[in-house]
Amino acid sequence: RRPMTLGMLACQVRAGEIKPDQSVDKWKLFRALCEAKPLLGIGDRALAVLNALLTFYPKNELAQGNGLIVFPSNIQLSLRTHGMAEQTVRRHLAALVEAGLLVRKDSPNGKRYVRRDRAGEVDEAFGFSLAPLLARAEEIEQLAAAVMAERLHVQRLRERITLCRRDIAKLIEAAVEEEAPGDWQGLYSEFRDLIEGLPRSPTTAQLELLLDELTALRTDILNSLETRIKSTKQRGNADYIERHIQNSK
DNA sequence: TCTCGACTCCCTTCACTCTC
DNA sequence: GAGAGTGAAGGGAGTCGAGA
């Protein structure tokens, strides 16, 4: 009933390539997953379900030797996700499988349960395999690092944009106060258009573009003010020389 | 050993809420 | 207003375990 995609198949193959001695701290990996979630195509609620699923794994270290199958009922998962509706839990489980973070270990009828031996020990469990998490641990850590680096880059861009905005506003204000010649109203409108044209949630490329445009605008304003200062200085010197000549007469 | 109720799984549909 | 996400309800199907 559940379709198997090529992605899921690749995930299963990868999960089968885990080294016997490979292990990873499940909570450390979960924190990396929280960082990397935009690149993995999962949301907060799916992570809440994964978090609940990990609480059913008895050890802190995910390792082949500890077994990698968890088999909680949807009701238990619902309880550990603070009352998330079972239907929603199921949807997010499907999303986690789709994202290649879990593999279903289906029973013949596709249901989740555990088969115990005569001694009451788990003989075979049908549920979810956490093997993909272990197999992809290194990749997930790298994705998390990339997301953090990107976030830092965006933070720096925003800081530079703020500084540039402040500079431009001050320069235009000063030019208007000094009554410097130039279309300051037009430049101010251009400045406002650039700022207001930025979407509420801009992409990195949009921020980079805005910074470039603001930097160019600031350079234009500075050049025009510098030209004005130079011409004022020259006029001042010329006036002085003229007066000097007249006095000498 | 067999039967049957309880339990659990999955799926679909529909209505509602929230965000963009 | 459209689309995504969510929750409730209902139905089909299989397993488990107690009792006959």
UniProtKB/TrEMBL annotation:
InterPro entries: RepABC_RepC, RepC_N, WH_DNA-bd_sf. It holds the Pfam family RP-C. Residues 2-175 form the Plasmid replication protein C N-terminal domain. Signal peptide: none annotated. This is Uncharacterized protein repC.
